Amino acid sequence: MAVAALVLVSANVCGQDLLARQAPIDRKLKAVDSLALIRQIKAEQAVYPAYSLYPNWSHDRVHAYGNTVQIPDSFRIDLTGFCMPTTHTKITSKCGPRWRRMHNGLDIKVYIGDTIRAAFDGRVRMVKYERRGYGKYVVIRHDNGLETIYGHLSKQIVAEDQYVKAGDPIGLGGNTGRSTGSHLHFETRFLGEVINPEFMFDFPNQDIVADSYLFIRGANRYAYQRTRALAAVKSGKSGAAEAEKAAIRYHKIRKGDTLGRISRIYHVSIDRLCRLNGIKRTTVLRIGQVLRCS
């Protein structure tokens, strides 16, 4: 019995020694697996930017998603590493209702032959021509989840599936398609949902509005409602109360701003501010960050 007990103890000790020696090997294997996974993710990201968000990669249609994609209630879009698509600053037509139809982007005055550049790193999804619409246009899907559309070009100088860096030339300004004068039609979309480019890009100052933009599902539709309501006020068809009810307001964080101060300025509770922006009362506000306030 004594011998049997000694054998069992020895076997147990040997087993523990083996496990102890095996532990560093397991950790190394996990580290190798993690590195391999990271490399795979980066490779897929390079081939299909924002692949975790989008259901497909299509060369057929600009608005290719419809009900096939699940749009999150909110998503923060990184705007760092940007490049303005053009150095021109004059906006000739804003995003919103126009001529009894929806204008889904900004029209920026450019001249035929002006260089148009990619706004962010990404991969070209479409290089097409649409006679009664965009004319010659380019669609790029970016690593941050945005898709940008550049319309009415005189020439496209990139190819579908080509990877571009922010600032790379992608085309030349023009007057093709449904256009009444040379200009760049510039759209920004997230999973097919229109975002007013002015919420992110400050064309007069050739800069971005903030380092990031918080996408909130349906928010841009409220902005269109505000535009229509304000237009109705000017034409005498509605009252100021209706315009105010439909308004959506944003606040750019400055030095010394707190949630309490912002809530007092816009007459909105701190809890509502948190819900609108997907943040908590303890969230640290960064200078330049944009908060939705109504």
Overview of the molecule:
With 294 residues, the protein is of the alpha+beta class. The chain folds into four domains: 1-47; 66-210, Distorted Sandwich (Glucose Permease (Domain IIA)); 218-246; 249-294, Membrane-bound Lytic Murein Transglycosylase D, Chain A (Roll). The chain has five helices and 19 strands. It has helices spanning 2-47, 219-235, 240-246, 259-266, 270-277, and strands spanning 74-78, 91-93, 96-98, 101-103, 106-109, 115-117, 122-130, 135-142, 146-153, 155-156, 163-164, 169-172, 183-190, 193-195, 201-202, 207-208, 212-216, 250-252, 290-292. The strands form six sheets. Strands 2, 5, 7, 8, 9, 11, 13 and 14 form an eight-stranded antiparallel beta sheet that branches. It has a three-stranded antiparallel beta sheet with strand order 6-12-10, with no helix packed on it. β13 and β14 (193-195) form a beta hairpin. α2 (219-235) packs antiparallel against α3. It starts with a helix and ends with a strand. Residues 224-247 have low confidence and may be disordered.
Keywords, please?
alpha+beta, eight-stranded antiparallel beta sheet, three-stranded antiparallel beta sheet, Glucose Permease (Domain IIA), 19 strands, 294 residues
